[in-house]
Specification:
Chain lengths: 548, 254
């Protein structure tokens, strides 16, 4: 039997160096880089700037736009549904509001649509896996909101905008910063258990690229605590949810409005026609596309479906030429590769170290810069290579216990402790090995302050959208994003519904899209959206027969 | 290594396992009784996929956060049943396993705004917790190592805060509820406790309250408007020269 217990000897030797230099490393931290140094670091070592990761899109609304290859591949694929296979005359669900995606944004939207007067049985959440199987459930670090006296929404705005390399849509960044305290207040009313000081004030940490400590957390289960509460609230209100029924394509009407979607039952393979006066796209991110071959932190259903179906209908996209790789994905042991070790670990004071036990970067640079610095260290052979060939650098977690006292790690990073303990690693005593991992889809379907897309009847919120974070998102701003824009989507869609009139349903846009592919001389081998990633063993797939 | 200097290990290759372990390269597992040989060192989830299963149910976050992948296993010649998460637990030789993608467990419906948190509140909504026979089976089944019995007993005693605190790391996988001889739905009980604590029992932030007032009075509107209108070079300078709190303190706040 194979049991992996702790680190192999050669790694222990390197860990010894980290231990010997720990005191010195803590006393003399590396300073943040200048803007110029950051730029150079990114140019040389971040996949966004490397050759061969991206290409121009040849079809549709954003023809000519530069996007990651993996996304272009899907945008240049056939529509997954053939319009001829669907009978639109039989409507299975007729509702006011269709919400696609039962994660954070979708559920928040449902709650606020309900509060804004849409009756519960006129709302339908349709989701791919179970309600709450979503990236939102996995967020560890926390959520930003400028509520301390030393802080202000204006400073928060400046951080968002600068962190996004000044490419964000300003009005979206403003909404994010200004709505934030209200969201925390709403969470308090729902019953979210935030980490607090004795006097009730929040414990707030710093995060990469933030100028004030404004990260609110719920131990290292922040997203789970929010999602559990929001979902419990939706369940108490009995808002209808269809699980294991991903929407595969949007439905339009003869007036060019979005009028619902075609859902696909993953277990019976039936399709359902859903007609809706307004549709909210809340399908989250696309980490499972493994862009640029990175492992990912994302949940199983994060395959970018929302981008694809919205594009088929004529929506436009933003900033998909950048991806967010998170600096501290796990690199060892093998079963953990790609899984996130929260940024909070650095927020609490742990410093990245190379194989000689030397620090090489300010621990809280913006994520893209921090990642690039880690990649550089490994490319220049100052990383540690695991037995499976995965490179990584140390994150010296025991520093946290020295700074904040013994037991801090157990108290604040329970999930992380549990994860490593299974493999015989005690992160309070030994550093952990990390390497960047694909984490977040910075861009997506363009929205405005009211979460409207350019298509009438289609609203969007959360990770599927573009513009809020520009070309780079800062930690803690996307839990905030799904709350701020989920809420707005619910409210504005409820308003829209009052006046909306749906015409005759059609799937003509799919035929049109397929024709466009033909005209652009693209011969697609695949269809999209892909719904679920394919992880079956190559051996098993190569011998599979399609006879049953 | 690919051109990105990356290793994509979502799909394991047979050869990869050999350095990790001590002796064996492959292990034999029995998926619902049927034998498959899979590389050692894989999680149960990746082992099933390696064998050719494609998940629909039983797989959510793939990282120990969602509780979708509850698994029961027994190793050949062992008395004890094991309980764990397929995405976290590494396969062992001669492991018989089955996943439980769904645990039927009714949740009480309540209006959190109308509940008054008292000693009897939880018992009133989930009266079955009184039937706990202290067998500790729930605790032994919990993949999160939570003291499940203890939090149920705190709930019985009306200690909402403690029930909330002990249960905080619950990922709602349902393994405890599956096994409880008293048919208690532990994870629904503790969800209620946590909401009650977060909403009613924890002291609230004064800073937040005053910031909300300021925002309501539009204190920041013109300031942000100015930033939005500012020319690019000016705002870049402002950003570059802003003071960073964490740097001054030399640590991550707190
Ligand atoms: C491991 C991890 C840690 C993170 N940590 C933090 C953090 O500390 N702070 C922070 O601010 N952010 C963090 N993030 C980012 C943040 O959690 C997400 O960006 C955010 O929660 C996204 O919310 P969402 O509602 O847009 O998407 P999701 O929560 O992912 O919800 C989308 C839902 O739509 C479903 N879906 C997808 N396709 C379809 C379809 N075709 N039909 C129907 N349903 C579909 C999905 O299955 C899912 O349930 C983290 C992310 C991850 C993965
Ligand atoms: S308490 Fe129960 S539902 Fe929660 S994690 Fe433990 S076994 Fe799973
Ligand atoms: S399994 Fe049920 S009866 Fe046994 S200790 Fe837990 S709650 Fe009590
Ligand atoms: S898949 Fe979410 S806990 Fe295992």
């Amino acid at each position: 039997m194979t049991v992996i217990e702790g680190y192999p000897d050669y790694m222990l030797k390197s860990i010894k160096l980290c231990e010997d230099k720990r005191e010195k490393n803590m006393a003399r931290p590396v300073k943040p880089m200048s803007m110029k140094a950051r730029e150079e670091m990114l140019k040389k070592y971040h996949p966004d700037y490397m050759e061969g990761t991206k290409r121009e899109l040849k079809v549709g609304k954003d023809k000519g736009m530069l996007l990651y290859n993996g996304i272009v591949d899907l945008l240049e694929s056939r529509t997954v549904i053939d319009s001829k296979d669907i009978d639109l005359s039989k409507i299975d669900y007729d509702v006011d509001l269709l919400i696609i995606g039962g994660g954070g944004a979708g559920t928040v939207a449902a709650l606020f649509a309900y509060e804004s007067g849409v009756p519960k049985d006129r709302i339908l959440i349709v989701t791919k896996l179970r309600h709450g199987d979503a990236n939102s459930m996995m967020a560890q670090g926390g959520i930003q909101a400028a509520d301390r006296q030393e802080d202000s929404p204006s400073l928060h705005y400046l951080d968002i905008y600068g962190g996004g390399h000044f490419t964000n849509k300003p009005e979206l960044a403003r909404a994010l910063a200004l709505d934030a305290p209200g969201i925390i207040n709403w969470h308090e009313q729902l019953g979210v258990m935030y980490d607090r000081h004795e006097d009730g004030e929040f414990q707030e940490l710093s995060g990469g690229g933030t100028c004030r400590n404004r990260m609110h957390s719920c131990k290292d289960y922040s997203g789970m605590e929010m999602m559990r509460n929001i979902r419990d609230q939706a369940r108490n209100l009995e808002i209808p949810v269809l699980e294991f029924c991903p929407v595969a394509e949007l439905i339009m009407d003869d007036k060019g409005q979005i009028a619902g979607g075609v859902a696909f039952n993953l277990e019976t393979f039936e399709y359902y026609v859903i007609r809706a006066k307004a549709t909210i796209l809340a399908t989250g991110g696309s980490g499972r596309l493994h862009l640029a071959n990175y492992p990912t932190t994302n949940h199983y259903g994060a395959t970018g479906d929302g981008l694809i179906m919205a594009y088929h209908a004529g929506a436009n996209l933003l900033d998909l030429d950048t991806i967010q790789i998170h600096p501290t994905g796990d690199a060892y042991p093998e079963p953990l590769v790609g899984i996130l070790s929260t940024e909070k670990i650095r927020g609490l004071g742990a410093i990245p170290l190379n194989n000689n036990g030397d620090p090489f970067v300010f621990p809280l640079e913006p994520r893209d810069v921090e990642s690039a610095a880690l990649i550089k260290e490994c490319k220049e052979d100052r990383g540690i290579v695991t037995p499976t060939g995965m490179p990584g650098v140390w994150l010296d977690t025991p520093m946290i216990e020295i700074i904040h006292g013994e037991g801090t790690i157990e108290a604040k990073l329970a999930g992380e402790v549990r994860k490593f303990k299974r493999f015989g690693i005690d992160m309070a005593k030994q550093p952990i090995l990390v390497y960047p991992t694909l984490h977040y889809q910075n861009g997506g379907v363009e929205i405005n302050e009211k979460t409207e897309t350019i298509l009438p009847g289609l609203f969007a919120a959360g990770e599927v959208t573009g513009g809020v974070h520009g070309k780079n998102r800062l930690m803690g701003n996307s839990l905030l994003d799904f709350n701020v824009f989920g809420r707005r989507a619910g409210i504005y869609a409820a308003k829209y519904i009052k006046k909306a009139k749906i015409g005759k349903l059609t799937l003509n846009h799919l035929d049109k899209f397929n024709k466009m592919l033909e005209q652009a001389n693209i011969k697609p081998k695949k269809s999209a959206p892909i719904i679920l990633p394919e992880y079956r063993g190559e051996m098993a797939i190569s011998r599979a027969l399609d006879i049953f | 290594m690919t051109k990105e200097g990356q290793v994509l290990i979502e799909k394991p290759k047979e050869s990869k396992a050999k350095n990790v372990g001590e002796k064996t390269e492959t292990v034999e597992v029995f998926i619902m009784g049927k034998s498959y040989k899979v590389p050692a060192g894989l999680t149960i989830m990746k082992a099933l996929e390696y064998a050719g299963y494609r998940y629909i149910r039983g797989c959510g976050c793939r990282a120990g956060f969602c509780g979708a992948c509850s698994t029961i296993y027994r190793k050949e010649d062992e008395q004890k049943l094991g309980f764990d998460l397929a995405c976290q637990k590494v396969v062992e030789d001669n492991m018989y396993l089955v996943q439980l993608p769904f645990v039927p467990a009714s949740k009480a419906e309540y209006d959190i705004d109308k509940i008054v948190p008292k000693d009897s509140t939880i018992m009133g909504i989930y009266p079955e917790i009184a039937r706990c026979v202290s067998c500790n089976t729930c605790t032994k089944s919990c993949p999160q190592d939570i003291e499940v019995m203890k939090y149920i007993q705190r709930a019985v005693r009306g200690d909402i805060s403690k029930c909330a605190e002990i249960s905080f790391d619950c990922i709602q996988c349902g393994l405890c509820a599956m096994r409880c001889p008293a048919d208690i739905k532990h994870y629904h009980v503790s969800q209620l406790a946590r909401r009650l604590r977060g909403k009613y029992l924890d002291t609230k932030s004064k800073n937040l309250a005053s910031r909300l007032k300021e925002i309501e009075n539009r204190k920041y509107d013109s300031e942000i408007e100015k930033l939005i209108k500012m020319d690019k070079n000016e705002i870049m300078d402002l950003y570059k020269n802003r003071k960073i709190e964490a740097e001054e303190e030399g640590e991550g706040g707190d």
